[in-house]
Amino acid sequence: MLSTENLISNISEVPREWVFEYYLKLDEKLCGQDVKLKSPFNPIDKNPSAYVFWSQRLGSYQFKDFSTNINGDGVSLVKALLNLSTRGEAAHKIMVDYNEFKLSNKEDYSLREFKVQQRYKVVSFEKTNWTTLDQKFWTQFHIGSKLLEQYKVCPLVGYKMTKEVAGEVKELEVKGRHYIYGYFREDGTLYKIYQPMLRENKFLKVREYIQGTDQLTYKKDYLVITSSLKDLMGFTRLGYKEAESVAPDSENVLMSASVMSSYKLRYKGVCTLFDNDDAGIKAMKKYVDTYGVKGVLLPLSKDLSDSMRDNTLLKVKEVLTPLLKKALK
User: CA separation (Å) from 171 to 165, 167, 181, 201, 207?
Assistant: First the structure.
């Protein structure tokens, strides 16, 4: 008789590492490290653009595919990978496959040595002077020195990162590149590095911060949540007298309930203004579903700053203004 004693009946019993190892056919066992691989959703992905990584905030493995903006946990991976309709279907598929795997494999995940590996962290940086190259980059978005100073953006000549591996501190120094910008708080604290010319590591997060918070006056009627500091500065450049703006670390990061409650108490209306691609639309829907905050999709270029680069400011404002009025009423 076939014994079912060791078979599982709840998705929580499936080791989360196994889901990624099995469905992504990883060559290595997950035991705390991050793994970079080619997109499982994009067959023409020539350079690895997907990551399986340990989330310290969630205490579990997650994935992020930068070529398609698909991300989430193991259930989300299987749902997208197998084109299933619901997370329930994906969870059921995982349990069936794991039970079959257990019948022919004896690996005990409880015995696997698991050690979360440190990631490189920025430990120092060096500021430099603005150049004509910097001026050309920012002014194409109609962002000038006044806005850059207001939001504490400064060019960097380089930065140093370190991490500890097997008790040894490893250093990585980046120096001499053009187009490296530090994003700072009013007190001089660095919270992000922006490298717009890089495909990978375009943003290096140094610490948690809702961008634009230091510049809020709380004296205006409306708040617009944008997807980036560049879009935030662009929105400020448009000169709406009754609205100000903030931006989360990225549009994929949902602001906390306590923060959103505070905004709703302080402003007559709050809306989002994210990119008009799949990731932006998905992020906008999260704010609608979670907080009842409406969103604006600007039907010009991919995001607000690109729209300001590709069109006149008058054109952007003509298209954007009625959309904002509808979302904020």
Answer: 11, 13, 20, 17, 19
Q: Which two tokens stand for residue 47?
A: 């350079």
Alpha helix locations (H) across the chain?
A: 16-23, 74-81, 87-104, 132-139, 145-150, 229-237, 257-266, 278-291, 304-310, 313-328
Q: Is the separation of the CB atoms in 228 and 247 below 8 Å?
A: yes
- Domain edges within the chain: 11-111, 118-209, 210-329
pLDDT at 200: 73
CATH of domain 11-111: 3.90.580
In the chain, % of residues over pLDDT 90: 63
- Provide the pLDDT confidence category of residue 1 given band limits of 50, 70 and 90: very low
**Cβ atoms 194, 105 nearer than 8 A:** no
The helix or strand, by DSSP H or E, that contains position 122, with its residue range, turns out to be: strand 121-127
List, for residues 162-213, the tens digit of each pLDDT value: 887 666 778 888 887 899 999 999 999 999 999 999 877 788 999 999 999 9
Strand 222-226 relative to strand 243-246, pairing: parallel
Decide: 245 and 226 in contact? Cβ < 8 Å. Answer: yes
Class of domain 210-329: alpha beta
